[in-house]
Each structure stands twice: as structure tokens, then as C-alpha cells.
Amino acid sequence: MVQAIKWVDEVVPAAPYVTTLETLDKYNCDFCVHGNDITLTVDGRDTYEEVKQAGRYRECKRTQGVSTTDLVGRMLLVTKAHHSGQEMSSEYREYADSFGKCPGGRNPWTGVSQFLQTSQKIIQFASGKEPQPGETVIYVAGAFDLFHIGHVDFLEKVHRLADRPYIIAGLHFDQEVNRYKGKNYPIMNLHERTLSVLACRYVSEVVIGAPYAVTAELLSHFKVDLVCHGKTEIIPDRDGSDPYQEPKRRGIFRQIDSGSNLTTDLIVQRIITNRLEYEARNQKKEAKELAFLEAARRQAAQPWGERDDF
């Protein structure tokens, strides 16, 4: 999954949890980057302490409003409050606020907040490139919910279909996904799914809120050469018609076997099965983070002569 992110050049499997100068030097890294949340060792120490002291640490502000904690909460509560255009119910707000929360209070990292999409975020993720002469424009469509390795394997296979592919991914509206998937799908709303797909190195462009049926108008507008779909079931449109009937009529439709059996449903099932473990993990993590924050506050409040860092 990480290798498929377009800003990643190399992946080191089984990397040590505590980042050391030795690790940075071994892989020829100038510095280490992390979000502005805290990660701690079992004994409560900052995992980036060594690289920070050596001046080889950089920090990025975390994207507010979407986190593992929040996504797990959505799966477990089976609510549609996270869908675009839906107002957050008091039940979801209460649950989201307390999910996996330790009794001692709330810290700024493990809790849940609302994701706010901006044009600037989309610009940062988008390639900004239009199809060039000689490139094969390939259109794929779907929910691409909880973007996972099954999606990546499919897109990689599609990417191999041409020497110079230009892949356009059409993302369906939340209400449309819910129509054909049911329950509280999609788990991630349209804004979140857009950034997930744009981050993939095989995708050149995203249609935000694509029509369910691949129409003649859409194919002409994007000058599509090929339309691909995975081996998952194709649900008929609202009127009972085949959403791919136009590309099939033109002879430009291909079904691609990703070779992966992982689906969004399977991921959700794993989370539900391990519910208690996840909630305990979040409580333990938050308790540790709060203890670290309290220790830092006490340290800062001490007179200069009594502080441990001097």
C-alpha cells in the first residue's frame, strides 16, 4: 500500500519502532518526518528523541478529522452520519467523542474531529496534468472505500494495459454508494475517498461524484479509450440497466482480475471481530499520551534551576 503512494520512493519493511540515527544513515536519509502527534515507547519516552536532539527531525501538521480511531468508530457504530450532506447525529457525536477514550480525559491526537475538505488540499494531491497525445485514457469507477491493497492491485493491473496510461477514477457520491452497498457504506465520505485515490501513483485524475452509469457523454468528454472494472459484481442502475452498457456497446470494456481477495467488507469484518481489542488499544494509547502531556506541563512549570533538561 505504502509503495503505491506517489510520494514514496522506497519502503523499508519491518523498520524499528524507535527511529535512530543509525537507521537514517543506513538508508541514506537526511532527516525523519512525522506528524505533530506524540508516539511513545513502552516506558513513555518520545520515539523520535534521538533524531530530534541531532537536528534531523521535521514535523508536519496532522490532517484533522480523519484518523484510524474515527474510521473504526464509524464501522462499529453503523451510522451514516459521516456521509457528505448528512448532519452528525447526537448519538454518533457522543460515541465518536468517547470511542476508546480513557477515563482521565481527552487528548488532542487520539480523539475524533471533523474532516474539512479544502481546494488547497485537493491541489496538493492532484497531478494537475491533462492527457497528452499518445496516452491511453482509461476510465475506472467505483466507491474505492477504505482504499486498500485490493484497489491498488486492480489499478496496477489496469496501469499495465497500456505503454502510456492515463487513468481516470470516477468516485460515486456517498448516497449512490449506499444505494448499491447498503448498511452504512461508504465508511469514508466522498472528500476523504478523493484524497485516498489521488495519492495513488497509478491514478492521473479523479472525477468527484461521477455518474453511476458510464454514459456516452462521459466517454466523449474525457476522450476515453478503455473502461475497466474488477471482478466484483456489477449492480444494475436504479432503472435496472447495466451501468457499463455504453462502453460494452463500443467494445471498449474490459474486466480485470486484481488477483486480490481483499475487499472493504473483509476489512470491516476484521475490525468488528476485534472490537474490544481496538477499544482497549485506544484507551491505553490515550492514557499514555495524557501522562506525557501532564509530565511536559509540569516540566515547563518548574523553575529554571530545577528542570531536568538543564
UniProtKB/TrEMBL annotation:
Transmembrane segments: none annotated. Its EC number is 2.7.7.14. Pathway: Phospholipid metabolism; phosphatidylethanolamine biosynthesis; phosphatidylethanolamine from ethanolamine: step 2/3; Lipid metabolism. GO terms for molecular function: ethanolamine-phosphate cytidylyltransferase activity. Coiled coil: none annotated. The keyword Lipid biosynthesis applies. Belongs to the cytidylyltransferase family. This is ethanolamine-phosphate cytidylyltransferase. It comes from Macaca fascicularis. The lineage of its organism: Eukaryota, Metazoa, Chordata, Craniata, Vertebrata.
